[in-house]
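Reviewer comment 2.1 asked that we show a complete input and output for one of the modelled complexes. We chose the adenosine-3'-5'-diphosphate case, as it is the one discussed in the main text.
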Amino acid sequence: MSFALKSREEEEEKDDDEKIYKRYIEIVATTLPTIEGWSGKPSYQYQGFWHNSGASGVGPLAFQDHFKARPSDIFLASIPKCGSTWLKSLAFAVMNRKSHPPSAQPQHPLCILNSHDLVPGLEGMLYNNNLNGSRIPNLDILPSPRLFSTHMPYTSLPQSVTLSGSRIVYICRNTNDNLVSWWHFINKVRSNNSLEPVKLEEAIELFCKGMSSLGPFWEHVLAYWKASLERPQNVLFLKYDEMIAEPALHLKRIAEFMGCPFSSMEEKEEVVDQIIKLCSFENLSNLAVNKTDKNGTGIPNSAFFRQGKVGDSANYLTTEMMEQLDRITMQKLHGSGLIL
Ligand code: A3P
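Response of the prediction step:
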């Protein structure tokens, strides 16, 4: 194909993509409930969950329509502030340990880039019109197995993800810690955008109404929980709190689920411990890349590292606040078998 012909074809494809994105923007603007989101940009309610147009644009709609899953794909899923930065680091280190041994620091990619850039978000980065100049990404060129991340609710995932036999690793966290982590995070983003901080009381009200990022929190978690019970070979359900308590046990579960279990030789050579150390809060949060750089979405990498502890919410929530959240959590999870 001649160069002129190729570039005309590319121009036409670009125009088509722009038209597709314009249609999504119109759908969001004219048909979906919209509020001023916590970041100061609009949030829209799509298929029962609140998406932030500042964080992902109309990416959720484009992801649904255009992504084609492969059986070998692995998706790291979560509701924001449940430990996705950590999970992405662990999964990346596990999957790439032959080409990038975890002991090889500071050359390891995790010492050079933040895990959100190494494991890109589908709707938040790759299909996000705000970031990709309204181009539908061509993900067919990526070699298998592909490792992606998503905050999409289970019920909104493209059908090919749930039908192709691909694997999903979901991470969740206890309600109170998720809420407090989210509150700190949104105030960091707001201060970056020169906006006043949100008071904790207001954050709790929004959270309880389901208006946190990708909320309602409980419905997001429950749908993945149920999927993990129905399709355990395809959906692995992890709890941040349990991973903090026993990282080696859960790292081995992750590796096995991803189809690349640790060999006994690797265990003898302490590869498991090396990955845990490489991905630890202490190590990652102190790297220059995570202290000073921004990730592909424009958020400072440092905003993804705060305490990295279980139970820190008790330092912020009053007894009444905790009782209110516990009551809702109990009601919502009643009968599901899930304890948060
Ligand atoms: P805290 O705000 O409670 O400290 P996400 O990655 O989904 O945005 O979640 C952010 C939470 O995970 C924050 O919790 C953050 O400190 C914690 N975190 C980030 N990296 C971590 C790591 N390597 N190990 C453990 N926790 C980590």
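The longest helix spans residues 3-31. We note this here for comparison with the apo prediction described in Section 3.2.
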